[in-house]
Amino acid sequence: MNASTGQKVTVSVVAFLFLAVLGGITGVAALVLRGSEPGRSSSGFTDSPAVAGSGFPVNAVQMIFIVIAVLMVGFVATMVLGTYRRRAILNGTVLEVRGLLGARQADLATARVWIDSEPEYVRNPHGEGTIPTGRRVPHLVAENPESRRKIRLRLHSMGRTLLPPHELSALAAAVESGERAGPEASQAANTATLLRRLADDPIARLL
């Protein structure tokens, strides 16, 4: 339930190329701004630094570039760290979902469990932003009975395919192993059935 080695390598290479391009753009911008700084005026006083022809202070432009660069580096760092840190581990019946900022656990044998979903979006190939694909991404949600804290496991890999059948079956077995009563027992049984369907039904795996 983790990012594959290929996915980690791909993200690392993309991040490296992105940072290399960003570094080149920053270097060119620095040279342009340095060349636009005026020297001393004929009166003997130092002119206020400004971008040639714009009247806009060079220092302000530099600060804007720095802020943009920091934001972009932060975005790339978050993407890379998220790829390497995000993982889900099933130890017996205890599911641990690790994210960028920490980890949460839930015992699937005793927790309230259900399947949720959200619309899937991909990058727009013809412009900026994202567009919906028409598909929905399933999630396994588990809520601890004591703390009421929820953990959410995305059942799609980074490659936009369902998790391997053996992993979905292991999740179903963990859910089925507990003894529940009332509505929670019925909900858990339905959740396990749906997990097994996602694991075994070729049609369901294409949705």
Structure report:
It is a single chain. This protein has 207 residues and is of the alpha+beta class. Helices cover 45% and strands 22% of the residues. The chain has helices spanning 5-35, 58-85, 165-176, 183-200, 202-206; strands spanning 87-91, 94-98, 103-107, 112-123, 130-143, 150-154. It is elongated, with a radius of gyration of 26 Å. The two termini are 19 Å apart.
Give keywords.
single chain; 207 residues; alpha+beta; three-stranded antiparallel β-sheet; 45% helix; 22% strand
Write the layout of secondary structure elements.
Elements: H1 5-35, H2 58-85, E1 87-91, E2 94-98, E3 103-107, E4 112-123, E5 130-143, E6 150-154, H3 165-176, H4 183-200, H5 202-206
Antiparallel strand pairs: 1-2, 2-3, 4-5, 5-6
Helix pairs in contact: 1-2, 3-4
